[in-house]
Amino acid sequence: MLLTYALATGLTSGALYALIAVGLVMVYKSTGIINMAHGELFMISGFIAYAVHVQLGLPYVSAFIAAVVCGFGLGMLIYRGALKPLMRSSLANVLVAAVAISFILKGLARAIWGGQGDYIPFPPILSPMPIMLGPVMVIPQQIIAVGVSVALMLALALFFKATRIGKWMQATADNVKAARLVGIRVEQVYVLSFGIGGAIAAVASVIMAPITLLYPDIGFNLFLKAFAAAVLGGLNSILGAVLGGVIVGLIEQLAATYLHSKFQEVSSFIVIMFALIFMPNGLLGQRNIRKV
Amino acid sequence: MSRLLGCRSLLGALFICLLFLPFGANPYWLFVGNLILIYIVLALGLNILIGFAGHLAFANAAMFGIGAYAVGLLQVRLSFPYWLALPSGGLIAMLLGTTMAFPALRLSGIYLAMATLGFAQFTQWVFLNWETVTYGAGGFRVPAVDFSPLALPPKIGIYYLSWLIAVSLVAFAWNAMSSRIGRAFVAMRDGEIAAESLGVTLLHYKALAFAMSGVYAGIAGGLFAGLLDYVAPETFDLFQMITHKAMVMVGGIGSITGSVIGATLLVLLLEALRAFKSTQEIAFGTILLVFVVFCPGGLVSICRRYLPHWQEPLHVAQHAAILPDTDSGDVSDSPPPPARAEL
Amino acid sequence: MSRLRVENVSLSFGGLQVLSDVSMEAGPGEIVGIIGPNGAGKTTLLNAICGIHAPDRGRIVLDGTPVGGLKPSAIAALGLRRTFQTSQLFRGMTVLENMMAGMHLGTHSGLFAAAFRTSAMRREEARTIEQAHAALRYVGMEQFANHPGSALSFGQQRIIEIARTLIDEPRIILLDEPAVGLSPPRVDELTELLRRIRIEKGVTLIMIEHVIRLVMDVCDRVVVLSSGGVIASGLPDDVRRNREVIEAYLGSEFDAGRAQSQRLV
User: Fold this and answer.
1) Which CATH class, in words, describes the domain spanning B2-274+282-306?
2) Does A115 fall in a domain?
3) Rounded to an integer, what distance in angstroms lies between the CA atom of residue A260 and that of residue C62?
4) Alpha carbon distance B135, B127 (integer Å)
5) pLDDT (tens digit, 9 = 90+) per residue, C167-220?
6) What domain count does chain A have?
7) Fewer CB under 10 Å: which end of chain A, C or N?
8) Do residue A292 and residue C85 have CB atoms under 8 angstroms apart?
């Protein structure tokens, strides 16, 4: 009984981590940048949805749309405004810039919506009454969360396989020089990658906010877990990110249930270190052969 | 006159100012000055690792914390006197830092950065949760450092101790980086494979770089514990981590003077921003972002451009592009070669 | 002056067989050229010799010492140096400092000797600077001593890299396409330099090259690699007339006679 509960909760948070990780990996594959402000995209979009739905009283759908637009736009803005000029500079500069952006976003959220430690409650779409799914008791929101995540990932897979833009993104991720030579507007691909990554984070925030509760510092924590998921799956594999997310979510819950609740936080850190040291290519990633 | 505007004279001037600061400064400014000295040591160690040896590592805040906790716990739980606890804390931080050289052999760039970030977060979790040893979230009080044999009040004593240590460690780093050790580091940073083929044993030098940055951070942490008379986990979090990085970047990667300038400026900046309470984060983030975007080489790059007598041991790092395909912009007398060697 | 023997070396990367049963030899003071079409495995062979990759099978013996599988720094300590196809001058240092970096194995000051500037360390530093200048003078580049490594043209960088390998009295040098990116007059200068190195320094040289003229002028013997295997080896003139070699470069339908008459080979 305890196990099934842990699995259900783990799966739900796993879906969340998977979504964030997918956005992260997508951006990394295209541009080679790990966007350390990615978690803040989630956070801000969630707050925007809160502002639209709860504070302004507008219908849920408009909150959803507002959040996605915000995530998309903010993602693009982060790239064009800050990260693009630094791409030729050192890695350290890019990381510091991304974290600086995350500080700005965090500060803004705190100033506008609440202080440190304030948890913003977000109402779920359906009634919060738990229902029985076989032997497991779940909240409807969890089912929605997992369902939407799966749907979104399928949509993404379709996007990459079937649309022209998706194929451009794949090509750029594979070999930038060749993509340029073939006439692909690599710059647009970069901007789009960041935008889509942000949009995915926004969707995640809207469906997960009722479960996880929003607070300004959630961004970095999520980033670390999403990164653990991404590394576990192999930093250049989107499917790996999904797999990694689910695994991290499950490990967290199992550790919290069977060891101690304080082990929940640290599981992702251990996963990061373990995965990078013992299997740097992750479960589904590709080996990098050192060429001279 | 321009001859005087070299980096050595700047360093000298700064340290002389700091030497005389206690004469006439109120306790607040004494505290800030001491912080500056501590962060100079910390930033210097980090710059050796990131700037000279080229390893992007986030573990510095962890080393700082380990140093502070080690020194504090040795005093509180094992009754070590401070003069013994401080070097021991530095040694412990050094040993732990050196273990990261092993993953550094296999990981590079973003992978190493994130692995060390994971380690840093793990360390903070240990500080927070291993309550039986570390006293948990509340932290613990450390007895004030006893300088009575020298007839100095504790605050003055710790200030001059920090000053002495800072000056010695700056000189140590300067000499070390001007030697074959420094050249081996920069070679490792700029062309690992070529460095190896010239005989630079990678494990040895990576371990050395991590060890040096570890011991610098650990001693800075021990001094920090001595300054505050208190050790608590929230002083070693993400904000700290980024502040350390910022010190190195603002000053200039690969420049010793840069670390000193960066540390000084950032401590002063953070103190100035204290007045902004709620918007401190936004202000800090904005300033940092603007700086990194418009001056990625750090302040030292400006000094080097306008002050012809600015002589540093080894040059400030040339930036390596993230994407392997960006053009290097070299002047060639013939078309550039293929980017990848044939197998 | 070293003797290098490569015996039946095979190497594969993730299922791709890059070197198959390669054997070759370079005697003391010889200049051996390695030629072959793109993708033949020439650079991989050099990488295996200098320790970047360990061979799956076979032996590599340097002056009687087996070196297969040793780390590059260990093999460098035995007197082996190499240059790379892309410029590997350290960008964060001046040309002179790059040369001094080349003296790494010839100096021994540790961290504390450096930090406290002991007299032994200062003597070593002075000697290193002197030898760095001498090496630059040898290749005629001393005027660039204080330039940052990246400010020079590609051709100049390659020459300086060669100088960097010479600084510590090496016994054998591996050169990976030293002439790439050089204009014809510079190729002549390089030819001169290589000849001088062989006569005056007595170093064994193994050289990958595509510029056939350079190979013919300078090499004592030539080894031809194609698709990971040695297809010919011997005197330059013999190799150039070898039918298999011509086929490897130009394809089997091409008439060998016509190739020679058109001075393509």
Assistant:
1) mainly alpha
2) yes
3) 58
4) 8
5) 988 999 999 999 888 888 888 889 999 999 988 888 999 999 988 888 888 999
6) 1
7) N
8) yes
Least CB-CB distance to C86: which of B202, B317, B341?
Answer: B341
What are the residue ranges of CATH 3.40.50.300 in chain C? 4-89+164-236
pLDDT score recorded for residue A124: 66
**Which residue has 């001007």 as its token pair?**
B178
Contact C170, C202 (CB under 8 A): no
For residue C40, which amino acid is it? A
The per-residue pLDDT for B3 is 53
Say which amino acid occupies B246: A
| A280 vs B107, B323, B326: nearest CB | B107
pLDDT band at A105 (very low <50, low <70, confident <90, very high): very high
* Angstrom distance (rounded) from CA B95 to CA B210: 9
Separation of alpha carbons B211 and A240, rounded Å: 35
* A258, part of any domain: yes
**CATH code given to domain C4-89+164-236:** 3.40.50.300
pTM across the whole model: 0.87
Q: Is the pLDDT at B1 greater than 80, yes or no? A: no
| Token output for C109 | 């000051």
The complex scores an ipTM of 0.88
Q: CA distances (Å), C151 to each of B211, B289, B331, in order? A: 33, 30, 7
CB of A71 closer than 8 Å to CB of A41:
yes
Take residue C128 and report the two structure tokens written for it: 């290193």
Domain range holding A256? 2-278
Three-state SS letters, chain C: CCCEEEEEEEEEECCEEEEEEEEEEECCCCEEEEECCCCCCHHHHHHHHHCCCCCCEEEEEECCEECCCCCHHHHHHCCEEECCCCCCCCCCCEHHHHHHHHCHHHCCCCHHHHHCCCHHHHHHHHHHHHHHHHHHHHCCCHHHCCCEHHHCCHHHHHHHHHHHHHCCCCCEEEEECCCCCCCHHHHHHHHHHHHHHHHHHCCEEEEECCCHHHHHHHCCEEEEEECCEEEEEECHHHHHHCHHHHHHHHCCCCCHHHHHHCCCC
CB B198 within 8 A of CB B93: no
Please report whether residue A290 resides in a domain: no
Q: Is A120 helix (H, G, I), strand (E, B) or coil?
A: strand
Helix C184-196 to helix C154-166 angle, to the nearest 10 degrees?
0
Contact state of A292 with C52 under an 8 Å Cβ cutoff:
yes
Pairwise CA distance, residues B101 & B107, whole Å: 10
Alpha-helical regions (H) of A32-90: 38-50, 60-77
Tokens describing residue B94:
């050094």
Tokens of B260: 């000193």
Domain chopping of chain B, boundaries: 2-274+282-306
For the ranges A244-258, A267-281, C222-236, which has the lowest average pLDDT?
A267-281
Contact C99, C164 (CB under 8 A): yes
Rounded to an integer, what distance in angstroms lies between the CA atom of residue A228 and that of residue A100?
21
Q: Do C85 and A287 touch (CB under 8 A)?
A: no
> C10: which strand partners?
C57
Amino acid at position A168, single letter: W
DSSP B45-104: HHHIIIIIS-----THHHHHHHHHHHHHHHHHHH---HHHHHHHHHHHHHHHHHHTHHHH
User: Do C189 and C196 meet the contact criterion of CB atoms below 8 Å apart?
Assistant: no
Residue A24, in any domain of the structure:
yes
Q: Is A34 helix (H, G, I), strand (E, B) or coil?
A: coil
CB C242 within 8 A of CB C232: yes
Contact residues, C window 7-46, toward A, CB-based 8 Å cutoff: 13-14, 43
Token pair for A253: 């819950």
* 8 A C-beta contact, residue C227 and residue C234: no
Contact flag C85-A289 (C-beta cutoff 8 Å): no
Q: Which helix (H) or strand (E) holds A132?
A: strand A131-133
